[in-house]
Design goal:
The structure holds 4 protein chains of 4 kinds.
Chain A (H helix, E strand, L loop, with lengths): L1 H8 L3 H4 L6 H6 L2 H10 L1 H30 L3 H8 L43 H37 L1 H16 L2 H12 L6 H11 L1 H16 L2 H8 L4 H38 L10 H11 L6 H28 L6
Helix pairs in contact in A: 4-15, 5-7, 5-15, 7-8, 7-10, 7-11, 7-13, 7-15, 8-11, 9-10, 10-13, 11-13, 13-14, 13-15, 14-15
Chain B lengths: L2 H29 L4 H6 L6 H10 L6 H13 L5 E2 L4 E2 H36 L4 H15 L2 H15 L23 H39 L2 H8 L4 H39 L4 H10 L3 H29 L10
Antiparallel strand pairs in B: 1-2
Helix pairs in contact in B: 1-12, 5-6, 5-8, 5-10, 6-8, 7-8, 7-10, 8-10, 9-10, 10-11, 10-12, 11-12
Chain D lengths: L6 E12 L2 E13 L4 E5 L6 H8 L7 E10 L2 E4 L1 E3 L5 E3 L6 H8 L4 E4 L3 H4 L6 H13 L3 H14 L5 H5 L8 H14 L4 E5 L7 H18 L2 E6 L2 H7 L2 E6 L2 E7 H6 L4 H8 L49 E6 L2 E5 L22 H9 L4 H11 L8 H5 L13
Parallel strand pairs in D: 3-10, 3-11, 8-9, 9-10
Antiparallel strand pairs in D: 1-2, 1-4, 4-5, 6-7, 11-12, 12-14, 13-14
Classes of the chains: A mainly alpha, B mainly alpha, C alpha+beta, D alpha/beta.
Chain lengths: 340, 332, 512, 408
Amino acid sequence: MATTESQLDDQEPGAAEGGSVDEEVETRVGWRYTLAKVKRDATARIGLYIVAFVIFIAAFAAIDSNLSRLTFDTMSDYTAAQAIPFFDHPTRIPPPGEAHPNEPPVFVDGGSLSHPLGTDPQGRDYFTRIIYGSQVSVSVGLASTAIGLIGGTIIGSIAGYYGGWIDDLLMRSVETVYAIPPLVLIIVFTVFISGGSPDIQYAVIGVGIAFIPVFARIIRSRVLSVREMDYIEAARAAGVKDRNIIRRHVIPNSFAPVMVYATLQIGVTILIVAGLSFLGYGAQPPTPDWGEMLRIAHGRYMHSNIWLSIWPGLAILVTIMGFNLFGDGLQDALDPRIEN
Amino acid sequence: MGLLRYTIYRLLQAIPVLIGISIITFVLANLAPGDPVRLMLQGQQADEELIRTIEQRYGLDQPLHVRYWNYMTGLVQGDLGYSIHRRRPVSDLMLERAGPTLLLVLSAYLFAIVTAIPLGIIAAKRRNEPTDHISRIVALIGVSTPSFWIGIMLIIVFAVRLGVLPSAGLVYPWQPPEAAGHGSYLEHWTETIRHLILPMIALGTLQMATLMRVERTQMIESLQEEYVKLARAYGVPERTILRKHAFRSAQLPIITIIGLNLSTALGGAVLVETVFAINGIGRLFVEAIQQLDYQLIMGITMVLGFMFVVGVVITDISYAYIDPRVTYGERE
Amino acid sequence: MVAGCIGGDNGAGPDGQHLLYTQEVNPEGDFDPIVSNDAYSAQIIHQVYDGLYEYDYDLELQPKLAAGEPEEEEDGERYIIEIVDDAEFHNGDPVTAEDVAHSFTAPVEEDTDNRPEYDFIDVDGTEAIDEHTVQIDLEHPYGPFETLTVATYVVNESVRTDDPDDYNTNPVGSGPFTFDDWTSDEFVELEAWDDYWGDPQPELESVRFEAAEDDAGRVSQILAGDTDAIATVPPEDWDQIDGEEGIDVHRTESPSYMYVAFNCNEGETTDPEVRRGIAHAFSMSEFVDANLGDGGTPIASPIPPIVNEIWDFPTDDWDEATPDYDPDEAEELLESGLDDPDDWNPTIIVPPDDVRIALGELIASRLDELGYDAEVQSLDFATLTDTYISGDADDYEMYILGWTGGPDPDVYLYNLFHEDNAGVTQGHFYEGSDDFHDTISEARQTADQDERREMYIDVIDEIVEELPAMAAYSEHNTIATQDYVTDMQPHPNVSYNPELVSDDNNVGIDEE
Amino acid sequence: MSSEPLLRVENLKTQFFTETGTVRAVDGISFEVYEGEIVGLVGESGAGKSVASMSLLRLVESPGEIVGGTIEYKGETIFDLEEGPDGELREHPDMLSESEMRERIRGREIAVIFQDPMESLNPVFTVGGQLREFIEINRELPKDEAKAEAVRMLREVGIPDPEDRYEEYPHQFSGGMRQRVLIAMALACEPNLIIADEPTTALDVTVEGQILDLVDDLQDRYDTSFIWVTHDMGVVAEICDRVNVMYLGEVVEQAPVDELFYDTKHPYTSALLDSMPRPDRTVDELEPIEGVMPEAINPPSGCRFHPRCPDAREVCTRVHPENLEVDQAEGYPHRAACVKHDVFDVGYDESVPLEKGDEAETRVGETGSDENVDSTVEEGQASTDGGKANEANQTNRSPNRDGGESRP
């Protein structure tokens, strides 16, 4: 697929949004400069804030969750655990009497401030579950993007640096993976590898693997252009080992555009994992995952309690939007041609 | 190279990819725990003899590479295997289910193209004006929203609350009206469209948003091209410049992206078909996974991969058609 | 006339006697009762075929093609059944005793999926005595014959044997509707049979079956007016649907039984104290209330309430014996019962069904609070069927499943508790008292229903006491219809739904 | 030469409003073009030549804007401002409207030839189609006649087999051939003035020669006026009648071509001339101009050339020289914006010469090396020649074109 490949190369962030990042400029652009530029752009700034906020919440929920776990060890300690002022427990189903299943949000008749987004059919505080959902989404997004990034970097840099049949072999294999719709590939992977009991960790690996191709492709095309640069020639002439050349020169030089792509990719990943959970192949109950919450909400409560469908969707939307805005901002900052 | 020869050449190039897909799915399916024969018997008590008979019938007693070889020889003859669970040839199921999926995906694309291109052009033309900002926000929301959630919201609003559009299923235009219980072709096709609208929007929004973003940047770039400046300098009206001079070359990346996004769209069809109860390949896939119907899962993966490859070839060909610089075979 | 209907409007709406009914799942496409083994094909079969006997709304058998009650002979090893003389198949063939005999022997002779339910039939002895009298011989007395087996649908032997494969998708029955058209995974079309031999003649002219697998999808369709009637409404949506102008929800008890089974083969749950402790840890009635509302009822025994009623079982005793919500008691029982209370992390496996997942979550949540880290695993049915029969404590210590059968305790007790079915349809591997399994099989092979009743009471007493599986709830059958659909009443037997034409009702469309 | 100029530009100012500040790309230039003459507009990249020429057609793109001055063409006002009742500037009522510009001026009266023949033709349309479209629009010919005319023009500019090549796409043409097509476009619309914006820069030397000969020949036959924008003094010498030398948005010297070459009045012009090989002089070695042209966004005080000027004195840092007439030649004024000439009388002679490496160094440094990042990126957006990133590549190139650069 010669032509396909060259088209796929165009898929790198610059091209997808119009033209590749100017070589000479990019290599000289530092991170400090990029961040300064992102900060100057209002939309990118909003993106940065959303991303920071969601990550903060996720980290916060992680701490909170550990606290709860520690304190929930025995029944008698349970009351103490309730003293945690921030959130309810995300998965604990309130015992009889305490539970008010399917309570509407606070601004609707019958809602109360103690459950600002209402409760789920089990009587759990929906706000808590939404907040904890960020933890799952963000960690899944980061982890699987990291897998894709690392895998893609290894494959892409080897393919690009050595060229020839190694390049052919690696890139053809990678294209093959790309040809299967990611969602389908990930489900097949998740279900088969997990032996029919899918869970979020398999999904993370599956998503990571499914996105190796895109990263491999970007890295490779960067490597191809960096490879020809004089100082690489010089390093090679000076007898520096290939591995070291790749590690010290080629990869750092390809870093900036890849990071842009990775940022945008986190959004895509969260979207895919949400779909996966929605079909029941991602996070499993009672994990407070947005996709999983939507699955339950859609399956049984779409009509009786539409709020259950609305909140997780909005949470996904805002989170992904944050990553997209931030990624766009990074990209604009790195590409002088798309300048307002 | 002529168009036909180019097409054949490109399709031949796709063969290694298809072989690759078959290896991936085959390996995945056979690494999996669980025994297809046991599954087929669905928990019924079966003696060893019966299991062996079934294994023999489906060639499951052979070593892996022999099974792969058998599978591939079957594949060459258009035999995608046999769905143990459904007791039907996989290729029959595929033929049956490909129609709805294609109908859905193509109409989603149509929706995406028809809305994204004019909006993208307007945004590019009125860059940094309110129109541009609004369309950018719309595009941003579009790329950030899960298709299935859009589907759910659309059903709640349009099918349930307003009751103006159907919430599930499709009406197939290729069927005679009687099969769907319609009196006339007019009614039949009206129903086809009514049923398509919501799933089409749910699946098409992401594509629309992506295309709109690309269209906008491409048009902005294109409007800065020297030849556009030249056209302006020669008194070509702005409208002609937008519609002709800047437009055509700006579409080239769009075509590429349409082709490549086919993969996302086919994946999205799995979700949208589930939400809208559409009997396409996507839903069949979900069912096959639930039933761990190995042959069917492999068949679906192969067919989806094949659809993607064909889609890319088609876009390649139209690319070559629109961009005179691309000769069939290689670029200058 | 039949042809004239083609092209008519079969969509939703009160125009003409055409009903669009949305099932939960598409029929697999086996419309030959001999072969068919799925509830959704069975729902079609029920319209196309008449049974020898059929269940009424109380789940009592009433003669349909039979002319009267079966006559038991030879200590329950032979039954003589007379059939009506005016019954005809759709193709004009009369319904004969030969056809009836074939309907009982074919599942065994052809070794179809339905064989287990007919396995006791003596194929050689079963034959037509004359044109309207059939003799059915059994290998041994079989208790449920009179309560279950006689409800067999009668197939047209000559057409069927001529081309069995074609018959499967072009069934010829003697029921009120004829099979018109079918597209796999899409729809089934039935036409009313104008020359129906039985009474009453169907009011509807045609019925179209479609399916929407997720509950929300079906509810959307009925709310949007895309269909005339839907099967199974999630209880949460009843209020909304019922409140909706123009839509009615109908419900009825059903012989369904959901349970939480414990692994009695391995691990901590082999100790009955632990099992009782778990049962005390959560409130089933609260759960049913919150998750099913009026859609189901909590149960105390492995027999659904509607069957209890028929058999007049002492349910009050069982209700009393059932552990109620008592966290202190639970804590105590678990602490004393567990061998290793510090390291007990039970796994609960559940099918991908939201209610049962929620029940699993509830149990896990309660156990969490007692300091045991329980895990809920929702498995695909395919995986689940493999897993829950392994008996391996690493796979599961509890599983939540259900069983829907007929009005005979044997269905529940033999399949779900007898050792024959350990590792087949039950995964708790409960050993039981010395005569526990013997009593179940003996009752199975006893023709006298009163004797059987006594035996079953003993068995159920033990189950309620020892809790190899704790009964959870019984879900009701529901159908929602547009209000122009008249006389629709869901049948307790799911495979009869929608019951369109019976002695008690006749569904029609109010065309105003 | 008639007394009334075809085109009169007076005190034209075009500015770009960017995030980093206002770029005075064209800062008050004045010149005339008479019928039948070729007027050169010379300077290094970034001097504002291209912006100036696009300003003439009122095609400056956002964020650029013409902010002052007058452009008159054949007595019609292309651009003019007047003071409104409240003292604010507004467009003069005589000014041609946008649609008048499009319908009457662009293409029809004033045509352009762009610098890069590779980029100026639309790759997805046939060469003939593009040519025909312009003819249709500007000469109101029906399609078939326009086509015939297009073929004729292709032949006229020396394209062999014009009928066949009419149907071909730009990528099937060589650079020189494409430039001929662009010339054909310009001529085919029968304008009175053609603005040629570095039309030969992208071509290799032999092709450049052919094109120049062609233009010379066609200009004789069609008697069209040209504004020839270039940085190449060699081309100027070969083709122009009169020359305007631009530096940082200003015209610093204006004279008939021979006068300019033989009686150079501005040190910048001298520097330009010294940096190129000249057929009329033998020198031991070429002297490149010191330093890099500063940014138009923050021009040096006084004379903008003083940081790089060998003759710079203290006064040059303070006094900003107008482009004043310092001589007469061939009936045209010879203007120069350098205070060393007597007409300025600002005390140049008494002023202290600036020490080399003193101010010059810092000035250059300010925009050069230490904030390399910024300058290169900003170049993309603020470069006065049109704001394209690729322009950045040329910034560091010596004004003397370094040999033949040809593209496939």
